[in-house]
Amino acid sequence: xxxxxxxxxxxxxxxxxxxxGFSKRFGQDKGLVELAGKPLVLxxxxxxxxxxxxxxxxxxxxxxxDPIECLLQGKANIVVDESRTxxxxxxxxxxxxxxxxxxxxxxxxxxxxxxSHIASLLxxxxxxxxxxxPRWPNGYIEPLQAVYHTExxxxxxxxxxxxxxxxxQSMITHLKSIRYISTLALEQNDSELLTFFNINxxxxxxxxxxxxxMDTKIS
Length: 219
Description:
By secondary structure, the protein is of the alpha/beta class. It has helices at about 1-10, 40-50, 65-70, 90-100, 115-125, 150-160, 170, 185, 200-219, and strands at about 10-20, 20-25, 30, 35, 40, 55-60, 75-80, 100-110, 130-135, 145-150, 180.
């Protein structure tokens, strides 16, 4: 317990980026899929690196380490999933177990429009809470773009995995003192809430590319 507390005191804020999945739709690791000339994982890393003290990138195999290490050039700690079974919960558990920050921002690698302003806000709101999770008006939550008290989340993930659960909701049920923040409030920082836009299909990739072109023209 003392060792864990000393570890978490070293840094205040970590980011955990889940980049473990091989996408059948894209025929390669999704994090390496290029958008506007830059891999998706690099879009996420570049945006959030300025609001955290360290970044942990979780991959699913040893073979993924070198390509991502080449992209991030030693600026992140790249770790391999602690289980061969791929799921966000296992990736989160691996990430939390390697994060040195007291609080960890959990993100997928396929959200190229992730907002640094919202990330920073969630980190600020998580002080003295076990988690801060965005929630839509219909009740749907965004556990993969949320902030967690690292030690509490690690304990919760391990408890859920012992129960043979693989979903993040099972981890969340074991957390206390959760603060939910409405996406309506987040619109003040991201009017279109593009921060939650995931690249799951080729059509999503096309739409994101069009958006980047539009933003380039505007700027």
